[in-house]
Specification:
Helices cover about 75% and strands about 5% of the residues. By secondary structure, it is mostly helical. It has one domain: Arp2/3 complex 21 kDa subunit ARPC3, CATH 1.10.1760.20.
Length: about 180
Amino acid sequence: MSLTLRRVALSAVLVALIVVTSRFVQIPLFATTRLDLSYAIVMVAALLLGPLYGGTVGFLARAVGDLAFSGGIKIPYALGSAAMGAIIGLAQKYWLCKISNKALRFAASAAAAAVGAAVGFIGIVPALGALLFGAGYMVVLAHGATAALVDTIVASALGYPLYRILVKTPAVKPFEPIK
């Protein structure tokens, strides 16, 4: 099986896993924020497969989940998820792959997750929500900031360790960064 076909197949599995876990395995934290595993899995996709697949997995997982359970795609949130996956993937491609110390690499991946969540859920989601739906920018921004914080913690605490476990399995070949 070609490497591209393996990446597409793994991406499809990760999208399905995100859709299922984000809808059925979650813990409510605040009125509008919940703790789920979806961004940890987006982080795994980005670290394993790179920015294109990481962003695509983030977007498709949100879009498919919205279509299946909400009746329509919430474009700002799908783009926010895509931004998070793409930014973590870019960090892996150009920065994280050069760090040999495991503790430092974990911290750097947490920083990449924080930047991705901030761009996605403090930048893209409130701005597009206000433009497309007339939602109050500050209301959406407050929710986005809370979501970004929670998503960063979950992605960092679970995503990077899960990635480290998966790269040791023979079935998963990590993304080959450009040297």
